[in-house]
């Protein structure tokens, strides 16, 4: 088992000049560079961009549907790393309602898990193919109020890694916590990010 060190690729504007900040979380086997390259296609001209790197290119070792204890301590370490990054951004003058999150696959699961454990009025969340983490979801883990934070979740049906049932269960919990969730399900879509999903992020979240 492993934990994560604070290695973050930074791009976009310096925080002191930025209007907003976004934390971008890569998928299993990918890299900070691969996820941050999406920024070229998103409305992030006024943003400071942060893409942390997972140890061994994986935020946690097993499926997000495995028992949570099987993915420890890596999962807790990943959540702590994001929390530290959020606090660093706030300390540089960007408020929570100007902080955005984006993740793909394992990174989408991690983004959703983090914001649901610290629900508040964020700028928005873009979760490309992901859901809340655990064999069974423990609603006591999820605290706070999203106060109408916009959240976009997209997924394929079927997806080889993320069951639609878990995505739907995730949406239910987020909405109970007063998030404004937009769900898009693409029949037969590969485990990837389509151009339409990029466009949706710009239209619904990064406006």
Essential attributes:
single chain; 207 residues; 7 strands; globular
Task: Supply the helix-strand structural class.
Answer: alpha/beta
Number of helices: 5
Mean pLDDT across all residues, rounded?
97
As laid out across the biggest beta sheet, the strand order is 1-3-2-4-5-6-7
DSSP strand tally: 7
Question: In angstroms, what is the radius of gyration?
Answer: 15 Å
Helical coverage, percent range: 25-40%
User: What is the straight-line distance between the termini?
Assistant: 40 Å
Shape: globular
SSE order, one letter for each helix or strand: EEHEHEHEEHEH
Largest sheet: 7 strands, mixed
Classify the beta-strand content into a percent band. Answer: 15-25%
How would you describe the overall organization of this protein?
This protein has helices spanning 32-36, 74-91, 106-117, 164-176, 195-204, and strands at residues 8-12, 20-25, 47-52, 99-104, 124-128, 150-157, 180-187. It is an alpha/beta fold and 207 residues long. A seven-stranded mixed β-sheet has the order 1-3-2-4-5-6-7, with helices on both faces. Strand 4 (99-104), helix 3 (106-117) and strand 5 (124-128) form a beta-alpha-beta unit. The radius of gyration is 15 Å and the shape is globular. The N and C termini lie far apart (40 Å).
